[in-house]
Write a structure and sequence with these properties.
The complex is a heterodimer of chains A (324) and B (377).
Chain A: E1 8-19, E2 22-33, E3 37-41, H1 48-55, E4 63-68, E5 71-72, H2 77-81, E6 84-87, H3 99-109, H4 114-128, H5 143-154, E7 161-165, H6 173-188, E8 192-197, H7 200-204, E9 208-213, E10 216-221, H8 223-229, E11 234-240, H9 243-251, E12 256-262, E13 265-270, H10 273-287, E14 291-297, H11 301-323
Parallel strand pairs in A: 3-8, 3-9, 6-7, 7-8
Antiparallel strand pairs in A: 1-2, 1-4, 4-5, 9-10, 11-13, 11-14, 12-13
Chain B: H1 3-19, H2 21-41, E1 49-55, H3 60-70, E2 75-80, H4 84-93, E3 98-102, H5 106-111, E4 119-122, H6 127-157, H7 179-210, H8 212-217, H9 223-251, H10 261-286, H11 289-306, H12 319-325, H13 329-343, H14 347-371
Parallel strand pairs in B: 1-2, 1-3
Antiparallel strand pairs in B: 3-4
Helix pairs in contact in B: 1-9, 2-7, 2-9, 7-9, 7-10, 7-11, 7-13, 9-10, 10-11, 10-13, 10-14, 13-14
The chains are: A alpha/beta (324), B mainly alpha (377).
C-alpha cells in the first residue's frame, strides 16, 4: 500500500467506460476503505465486471479518475498489479496443469522468494482442501475446488487488496459458505476485499455495498443502512390463507405499490405502512380471508434493490421519451 | 526482465506441449513427414523417360539408331508398336511420354548420304519434362548424325578426322545434377518456416480464448517476459526439428554437407527466432486460434514455397516478383542453406544473407513485443 492511499484502498471519481455507443459504466464515484469487504451488487450486465477490470488496470477507462492502493489506474496500472490479487469470472487456471504446477506457475509469476514458496504452496493446498489432489490435473476438480485454488493462486503474493469477480457463480452452497469464511479470514488480516455478486444473501455478508444498475451506481452504504434508510416505502408482511388469491384483493387497496409472494406469505410495498395495515386488514376481513399477521418489517436487501431499480426506471422513462 | 518469471512461463509452456499429443505431433512428426513426402515427390530429375518406338524401317541401321535411345539412361523403351493407333494409345494412357517413329526409307537414305527424317512425338502436357526429353533426343540425333558424316568422310578421304571443337562440361557443387541435392536443403527452410509459425501462432491466442490471459495480464508480468518464456520451449523444439532434418538429409537423402555444421545451426537458430516471433505476432494480433493458424499458413507456406528460390530460381522470375522475394525471410535462409550444404562456403560469402536474416528476427521480435498489450479491448 502506498503512502498516497490515505486509508482508502480504492477511490473512484466519475469513472466511465463506453464500448462504441453503449455506456457500460456511467460516471460512477465511490470509495473503499482499507480492510473492508466491499460488495458490488447488481444484475448481470450492470457493469460490475467492467468496473472491476478497470480497477485492476486491464481495461482502459473512457474517462474519469481512479486510484487503487494509491496508484492511478490510468497512468500506473503496472504498479497496481503488484498490489492486487484478481480472480476473474472464469476460473483462470490451466486445466492441463496439476494443482501444484498451477501454484508453482503463479509463484514464479509473482516472484515469491524460494524460502517462502513452500510455505505459501502448503497454505494454498490446505486452504483449498486439495491435500489429496495435489498431483491431479485441475480439469477434473469440482467447481468449489477450482474456485478455492484460483483464489489461492491469485493471492499467493499476499496482496493487500483482492478483487473477486462473481467468485461463487456456479458453485454449490456449501462451497459458497466455505468461500465466504475464507474471505472473512482474509479481511480479518487487514486485506481489502472487493467482491461482485448478484446473490442477495452474499451481499449481506459485506461491510459495505454498492448497488449498480445499468452502469449507474444507484446506492451505496452498509447493508443495514441501505435497508432502513434508503427505501421510501414501507414493507409489510402479510400471513393469511390462500395468499395467491389474496394478492389480487390487496393490490386493489389504496396506497399499495406492489404485492409479491414471499415464503408462506406476502410482502406488500406501501407508501404509508400504518395506513396500509388497517386497509389490508379491512379488505381481507370483508372478503372472508383469515389473517394470522399483518405487520411492518425491515425490508430485505432484495426489497430495497427492487424498489430502487423501479424508482430509477420511473425517473429514466420520461427522460428517454424526451430523448426520442 | 525477471528470469524467475520467464522460467515459470517457459516451464508451464513445456508442460502444455508435452500434455497435448497434437501439438507434440505437429512439432516433431509433421516436419519429418513433410521432409519425406517432399523430398521424394519433389524431384525435377528427368531420366528413364518412357519411350514407345515404331520402327517402320526394320533394318539394322534403324535398330542401331534406336539402340542409342534404349542404351541411354535418359530413355527407357517401353514397347515397340506397328500401328499409329497403338502409338497414340501409349501416349494417351501415359504409358509413354515420347514416341519415336523411324520411317520406311530411313536405312536407304542414311546409307546413300541423304537426309533422313525421324519423327519424335512428345507429350507436352508436362512442359518441363517434354522440353528436357526433347533436348535429350536432339542430342542423341546430333551425335548420331555426326558419326554418320564422319564415317562417310573417312571412307571417302581415307584418313581419320578430328572434330574441331570439344566442349567438356564440368558441373560444380552438385556434380550429379540431382535435384534432391538442392531441393532438400531448401526444403528444410520451408518446413522450419511453416512449423515454427504454426507452433507459436496458437500459444497466445489460446490463452485469450480460454480466459487465462485475463488472469495473466492482471499480474505484474511484463510482456517481454511472457513472450520470451513462451518462445523458449518452441525454440528448443524447433532446433530439435533442425537436427532431425539435417540427420535425415545426411542418412536418408545423402545430401552432401560440405560447409560448417556449427554455422548451419547458428543460422537456423537465427531464422527460427524470427519465424517463432512471427507466429507469436500473428497470435497476438488475431486473438483466436482458428484465425491464427490460417494466417500463419497463408503468410508462411506459399511465400516461402514459391518465392524463396527454394525450387524456382529467383533470377527467372518477373522483375516485380523478384522485388517481392526480398521481404520473404526464407529467401535468405534458403540461400544460406544451399551455400553451406552444396558450396561449402561460409560467412565471407553469405554474410549479407545472414545479416538480413538477423534483421528479420530482430524486427519480428520487436513487433511481437510492441503489439502485446496487457489490456482487454
Amino acid at each position: 500500500m502506498n503512502a498516497r492511499s490515505n486509508g482508502k484502498a480504492v477511490v473512484v471519481e466519475n469513472l466511465e467506460k463506453r464500448f462504441g455507443g453503449f455506456v457500460a459504466v456511467d460516471r460512477i464515484s465511490f470509495e473503499v476503505s482499507t480492510g473492508e469487504i466491499f460488495g458490488f451488487l447488481g444484475p448481470n450486465g450492470a457493469g460490475k465486471s467492467t468496473t472491476i477490470r478497470m480497477l485492476c488496470g486491464i481495461l482502459e477507462p473512457s474517462s474519469g479518475k481512479g486510484t487503487v492502493a494509491g496508484f492511478d489506474i490510468q497512468t500506473e496500472p503496472e504498479r497496481i498489479k503488484s498490489q492486487i490479487g484478481y480472480m476473474s469470472q472464469r476460473f483462470s487456471l490451466y486445466e492441463d496443469l496439476t494443482v501444484e504446477e498451477n501454484i508453482d506457475f503463479f509463484s514464479g509469476i509473482y516472484r515469491i522468494p524460494p524460502e517462502k514458496k513452500q510455505e505459501r504452496k502448503k497454505w494454498v493446498i490446505e486452504m483449498a482442501g486439495l491435500q489429496e489432489h495435489r498431483n491431479s490435473r485441475t480439469a477434473i476438480l469440482s467447481g468449489g475446488w477450482k474456485q478455492r485454488l484460483a483464489l489461492g493462486c491469485a493471492i499467493l503474493h499476499e496482496p493487500p487488496i483482492i478483487f473477486l469477480d462473481e467468485p461463487t457463480s456456479g458453485v454449490d452452497p456449501i462451497s459458497r459458505r466455505q468461500f465466504w469464511n475464507l474471505i472473512y479470514e482474509l479481511s480479518g488480516k487487514g486485506v481489502t476485499v472487493f467482491v461482485t455478486t448478484h446473490y442477495m444473501d452474499e451481499a449481506e455478508y459485506c461491510d459495505r455495498l454498492g448497488l449498480i444498475y445499468r452502469g449507474e451506481l444507484i446506492a451505496s452504504g452498509p447493508p443495514a443502512v441501505l435497508k432502513t434508510e434508503l427505501m421510501q416505502e414501507d414493507v409489510l408482511e402479510v400471513l393469511c390463507e390462500r395468499p395467491q388469491d389474496a394478492m389480487g384483493e390487496i393490490e386493489r387497496a389504496p396506497g399499495i405499490k406492489e404485492v409479491a409472494l414471499f415464503g408462506k406469505g406476502l410482502h406488500v410495498v406501501a407508501e404509508d405502512g400504518d395506513a396500509a395495515v388497517s386497509a389490508i386488514r379491512n379488505i381481507l376481513d370483508d372478503r372472508g380471508y383469515r389473517t394470522d399477521r399483518i405487520e411492518k418489517i425491515v425490508p430485505s436487501l432484495e426489497d430495497v434493490f427492487v424498489s430502487l431499480i423501479e424508482a430509477h426506471d420511473r425517473l429514466e422513462q420520461p427522460q428517454e421519451e424526451v430523448r426520442r | 526482465m525477471k528470469m524467475l518469471r520467464v522460467r515459470a512461463v517457459a516451464r508451464k509452456e513445456f508442460i502444455h506441449i508435452i500434455r497435448d499429443p497434437r501439438s507434440l505431433g505437429m512439432a516433431i512428426a509433421m516436419p519429418m513427414l513433410m521432409l519425406v513426402l517432399f523430398g521424394y515427390a519433389l524431384t525435377l530429375d528427368v531420366d528413364r523417360v518412357p519411350l514407345v518406338v515404331w520402327d517402320q524401317s526394320g533394318s539394322h541401321v534403324s535398330r542401331e539408331f534406336i539402340s542409342r535411345f534404349s542404351g541411354s539412361r535418359y530413355f527407357s523403351v517401353r514397347s515397340y508398336v506397328s500401328r499409329y493407333q497403338e502409338l497414340e494409345g501409349a501416349i494417351d494412357t501415359g504409358r509413354a511420354l515420347v514416341a519415336l517413329v523411324v520411317p520406311r526409307d530411313f536405312a536407304g537414305r542414311v546409307e546413300s548420304g541423304r537426309t533422313a527424317q525421324v519423327q519424335l512425338i512428345v507429350d507436352g502436357s508436362d512442359s518441363n519434362t517434354a522440353t528436357i526429353a526433347m533436348g535429350y533426343a536432339q542430342a542423341i540425333a546430333r551425335t548420331y548424325s555426326q558419326e554418320v558424316v564422319l564415317r562417310q568422310i573417312q571412307r571417302a578421304g581415307g584418313r581419320t578426322l578430328v572434330m574441331p571443337l570439344d566442349l567438356r562440361p564440368r558441373v560444380w557443387f552438385n556434380t550429379e545434377l540431382e535435384s534432391k541435392n538442392y531441393i532438400v536443403p531448401g526444403l528444410i527452410a520451408v518446413i522450419m518456416m511453416v512449423i515454427a509459425a504454426l507452433l507459436t501462432s496458437l500459444t497466445v491466442a489460446r490463452e485469450w480464448e480460454r480466459g487465462t490471459m485475463e488472469q495473466l495480464i492482471s499480474t505484474p508480468i511484463e510482456g517481454k517476459e511472457l513472450i520470451l518464456g513462451k518462445l523458449i520451449p518452441y525454440f528448443c523444439i524447433g532446433m530439435l526439428d533442425v537436427l532431425i532434418a539435417v540427420l535425415m538429409g545426411q542418412f536418408l537423402f545423402h545430401i552432401p554437407l560440405r560447409g560448417s555444421v556449427p554455422l548451419l545451426f547458428l543460422m537456423s537458430a537465427i531464422f527460427l527466432a524470427g519465424t517463432l516471433s512471427l507466429g507469436m505476432f500473428i497470435s497476438i494480433v488475431s486473438k483466436s486460434q482458428l484465425l491464427a493458424t490460417q494466417l500463419a499458413m497463408v503468410l508462411t507456406f506459399l511465400p516461402s514455397f514459391l518465392l524463396s528460390g527454394f525450387m524456382y530460381a529467383i533470377v527467372n522470375m518477373p522483375k516485380p516478383l523478384q522485388l517481392i522475394t526480398h521481404v520473404i525471410p526464407a529467401r535468405y535462409f534458403v540461400a544460406l542453406l544451399k551455400g553451406i550444404y552444396l558450396k561449402g562456403v561460409g560467412l565471407e560469402i553469405l554474410g549479407f544473407d545472414a545479416g538480413l536474416l538477423a534483421v528479420f528476427s530482430v524486427v519480428m521480435a520487436t513487433l511481437a513485443n510492441r503489439k502485446f498489450k496487457k489490456k482487454l479491448e
